[in-house]
């Protein structure tokens, strides 16, 4: 039915998943840094974070990807040359794609984490400090566990959008699942079959994610009375 | 930064903005028209109404819009039956396939937003309507829907922004929208920064305008829900 | 969380670890080369069902690397991303049927050519199309974005509606479904990649063969960064070597039964037609 292209499709799926997970790692780091920056007392730092989230959320993913992919590389190497770096920095397409998606979703996660941090009543932190806990202890014991619970719905949403965004990376030539589907479609002239297969695989990934993250949300919300 | 090249390409960018806006407005209007009955069905108690809609929104929200676009543009054209049907004069055009995809996509997301807003209706409103002897249809159109539309406004504003960004995918199937204009300039001149930064600036301008419009709409229709203008209960900057 | 050196340590370290995955490469003794290929242009370069690259151009690329005693990695990229990738050092050479044209020479250097084939329009059999700027006025012609065919149409056929696609395969799909009236591309690519397939059986070539070097260049060569003369010399030596020692002929015979190297471009608008390939 798939004319023997199943191995290529599966290999593409693995690439898609690995791009998604690696991007998520970068996005989480950027999101935490960004959320902290947005809540900082220094206006300049707040401003930089705000510019970051505004620009990323105001420009389509595809345009950002094309900009960072085509233009960013030239910039990185021009910068390297300016610093007298004679060799060349070898950034392969996978790293470029992951960095791009990570950068984009770092902005969305910044908002998610910021919302989660704000939702924790300030009094809890004050109480922790009043007990003589250090700032790190307060963060570790009081803020972080609650933050996770508040962040999960938004995080789930961001993760699902991220997984679907990896499809766009195929447009700039990364050999992920969409790319494999496209190749197969071109070779066999049966685009419907292969894009349908790609759709089914994405549906499987998103469904499994929703099940998993839903279970996670229930496990950290034990005992919490819900409105609905 | 080569400003001359940008200025030379401006006409095509303006054309692209026009196409983007056309795609956006068409998709949003048609999508809303479809989403209203779907949202009501989705919020209904009757499983024969809500389950089919659930399947639709599940598939739409679980797959990338790019896959949906390719299925409609390249996938449908594969079949002899489609090519000889009465729909072909429309389906053969890239902009129609794009609008169709975007419409179905936004309908799926908007239906869920409307259903969610309807389910969140304070029960008191429904009780009051029932106690006044209003028939079901009237309760729906005079109480439930207006109340739900207001509640859905913030979520819908997000959806509109996402749709604006989504229209950029039309460039992947030969439509010369704003992103398409940028790609043409890039492939002609090999000036990616100039080409895509210009497009980014136009998109930012459009996004800001939309955000401002919705800000105004929220003030008008959700003003009664705005926080009181006194000292906030929760700190806005947190001394961790 | 305060932005202090201590609190930034972990995120910065993670980022640094990640960036260090991007390795720094200096010119070593066994040359490591990254070649950009497309993988979407049969029969020159395509993906097989197993996901591996194959095609005449892929074989030539591997042969050249063997001749240059270089350790080559083939990097699959979209065609319109090739030159930017080359300029930003993502790849060291482009082996993607890129024609040597004056316009491209402004951005990159080229090796000698390794093949040369003309361009022709493909239309549905029985459709009467007058192949001239006047005759094609208003018609929809499909091309791959950023190719010489794209440039040629934009310059010479100004009243035509040029529809640009990311991949040549997409051009064939829309030509087969009737969304475009004709397509302009390389003769061999069209022959092998479309006309000989079941979907292409109702289509054929029309109009002249286009070989004007101004648009169609002096053949396809390997694109290299401007000033990379050492690598250019290596490629030229390798191309001459495989033509002399029979490796070129062996690879050519596996795919075509005509001479794909072609003759050096003569006066503009040579109207010679290449023999259709019969495998």
Q: What is the mean pLDDT of chain C?
A: 80
Query: What fold name stands as the CATH topology of chain B?
Result: MetI-like fold
Q: Tell me about the biggest sheet of chain C?
A: 5 strands, mixed
Number of domains of chain B: 1
Number of helices of chain B: 10
- Number of distinct helices of chain C: 10
CATH superfamily of the largest domain in chain C: Periplasmic binding protein-like II
Q: What name does CATH use for the topology of the largest domain in chain C?
A: D-Maltodextrin-Binding Protein, domain 2
Give the domain tally of chain C. 2
Mean pLDDT of chain B: 88
Strand order of the largest sheet of chain C: 6-2-7-14-8
CATH architecture of the largest domain in chain C: 3-Layer(aba) Sandwich
Name the poorly predicted regions of chain C.
Answer: 20-28, 267-279
Beta-strand content bin of chain C: 15-25%
- Encode the helix/strand succession of chain C as letters: HEEEEEHEHEHEEEHEHEHEHEHH
**Coarse shape of chain B:** flat
CATH architecture of chain B: Orthogonal Bundle
Q: Give helix % range of chain B.
A: over 70%
Description:
The complex is a heterotrimer of chains A (228), B (240) and C (279). With 228 residues, chain A is mainly α. Chain A has a domain at 24-174: MetI-like (MetI-like fold, Orthogonal Bundle). Chain A is 79% helix and 1% strand. Chain A is built from eight helices and one strand. Chain A starts with 5 loop residues before the first helix and ends in an 8-residue tail after the last helix. The mean pLDDT of chain A is 83. Chain B has 240 residues and is mainly alpha-helical. Chain B is built from ten helices and no strands. The longest helix of chain B is centred in the N-terminal third of the chain and has 41 residues, at 3-43. Chain C is built from ten helices and 14 strands. Chain C is globular, with a radius of gyration of 21 Å. The N and C termini of chain C lie far apart (69 Å). By secondary structure, chain C is an alpha/beta fold. Chain C folds into two domains: 31-116 and 218-255, 3-Layer(aba) Sandwich (D-Maltodextrin-Binding Protein, domain 2), CATH 3.40.190; 119-215, D-Maltodextrin-Binding Protein, domain 2. The longest helix of chain C is centred in the last third of the chain and has 16 residues, at 229-244. In chain C, 34% of the residues lie in helices and 23% in strands. The chains are: A mainly alpha (228), B mainly alpha (240), C alpha/beta (279). At the A-B interface, α2, α3, α6, α7 and α8 of A face α2, α3, α8, α9 and α10 of B.
């Amino acid at each position: 039915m798939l004319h023997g292209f199943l191995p290529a499709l599966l290999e593409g799926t693995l690439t898609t998943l690995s791009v998604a997970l690696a991007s998520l790692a970068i996005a989480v780091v950027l999101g935490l840094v960004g959320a902290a920056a947005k809540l900082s007392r220094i206006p300049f730092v707040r401003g930089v974070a705000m510019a970051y989230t505004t620009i990323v959320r105001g420009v389509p993913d595809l345009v950002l990807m094309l900009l960072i992919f085509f233009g960013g590389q030239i910039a990185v190497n021009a910068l390297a040359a300016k610093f007298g770096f004679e060799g060349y920095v070898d950034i392969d397409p996978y790293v470029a794609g992951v960095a791009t998606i990570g950068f984009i979703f770092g902005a969305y996660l910044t908002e998610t984490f910021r919302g989660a941090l704000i939702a924790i009543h300030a009094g809890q932190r004050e109480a922790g400090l009043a007990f003589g806990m250090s700032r790190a202890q307060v963060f570790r014991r009081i803020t972080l566990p609650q933050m996770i619970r508040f962040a999960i719905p938004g995080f789930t949403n961001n993760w699902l959008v991220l997984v679907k965004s990896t499809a766009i990376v195929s447009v700039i030539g990364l050999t992920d699942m969409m790319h494999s589907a496209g190749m197969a479609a071109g070779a066999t002239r049966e685009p419907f079959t292969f894009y349908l297969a790609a759709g089914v695989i994405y549906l499987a990934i998103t469904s499994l994610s929703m099940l998993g993250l839903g279970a996670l949300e229930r496990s950290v919300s034990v005992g919490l009375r819900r409105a609905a | 930064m080569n400003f001359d090249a940008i200025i030379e390409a401006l006409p095509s960018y303006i054309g692209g903005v026009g196409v983007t806006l056309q795609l956006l407005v068409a998709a949003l209007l048609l999508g809303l028209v479809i989403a209203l009955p779907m949202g009501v069905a989705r919020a209904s108690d009757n499983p024969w109404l809500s389950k089919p809609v659930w399947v639709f929104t599940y598939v739409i929200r679980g797959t990338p819009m790019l896959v949906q676009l390719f299925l409609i543009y390249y996938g449908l054209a594969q079949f002899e039956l489609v090519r000889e049907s009465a729909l072909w004069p429309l389906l053969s055009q890239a902009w129609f396939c794009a609008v169709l995809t975007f419409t179905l996509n936004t309908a799926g997301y908007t239906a869920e937003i409307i259903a969610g807003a309807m389910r969140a209706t304070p029960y008191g409103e429904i009780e009051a309507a029932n106690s006044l002897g209003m028939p079901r249809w009237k309760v729906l159109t005079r109480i439930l829907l207006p109340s739900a539309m207001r509640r859905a406004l913030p979520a819908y504003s997000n959806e509109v922004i996402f749709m604006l960004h989504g229209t950029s995918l039309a460039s992947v199937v030969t439509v010369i929208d704003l992103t398409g204009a940028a790609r043409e300039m890039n492939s002609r001149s090999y000036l990616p920064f100039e080409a895509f930064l210009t497009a980014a600036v136009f998109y930012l301008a459009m996004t800001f305008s939309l955000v401002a419009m919705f800000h105004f709409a929220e003030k008008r229709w959700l003003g009664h829900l705005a926080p009181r203008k006194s000292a906030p209960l929760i700190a806005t900057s947190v001394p961790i | 969380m305060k932005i202090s050196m201590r609190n930034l340590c972990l995120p910065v370290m993670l980022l640094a670890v990640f960036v260090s995955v991007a390795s720094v490469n200096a010119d070593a003794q066994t040359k490591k080369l990254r070649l950009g290929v497309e993988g979407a242009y049969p029969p020159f370069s395509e993906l097989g069902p197993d996901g591996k690259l194959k095609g005449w151009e892929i074989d030539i690329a591997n042969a050249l690397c063997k001749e240059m005693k270089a350790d080559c990695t083939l990097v699959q990229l979209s065609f319109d991303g090739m030159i930017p990738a080359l300029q930003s050092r993502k790849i060291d050479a482009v082996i993607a049927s890129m024609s040597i044209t004056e316009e491209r020479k402004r951005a990159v250097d080229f090796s000698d050519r390794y093949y040369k084939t003309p361009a022709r329009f493909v239309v549905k059999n029985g459709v009467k199309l007058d192949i001239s700027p006047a005759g094609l006025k208003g018609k929809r012609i499909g091309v791959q974005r950023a190719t010489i065919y794209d440039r040629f149409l934009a310059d010479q056929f100004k009243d035509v509606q040029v529809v640009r696609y990311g991949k040549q395969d997409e051009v064939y799909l829309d030509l087969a479904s009737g969304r475009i009236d004709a397509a302009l591309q390389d003769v061999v690519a069209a022959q092998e990649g479309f006309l000989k397939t079941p979907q292409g059986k109702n289509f054929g070539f029309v109009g002249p063969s286009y070989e004007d070097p101004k648009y169609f260049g002096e053949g396809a060569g390997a694109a290299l960064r401007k000033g990379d003369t050492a690598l250019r010399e290596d490629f030229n030596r390798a191309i001459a070597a495989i033509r002399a020692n029979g490796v070129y002929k062996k690879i050519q015979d596996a795919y075509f039964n005509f001479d794909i190297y072609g003759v050096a471009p003569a006066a503009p608008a040579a109207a010679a037609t290449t023999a259709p390939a019969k495998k």
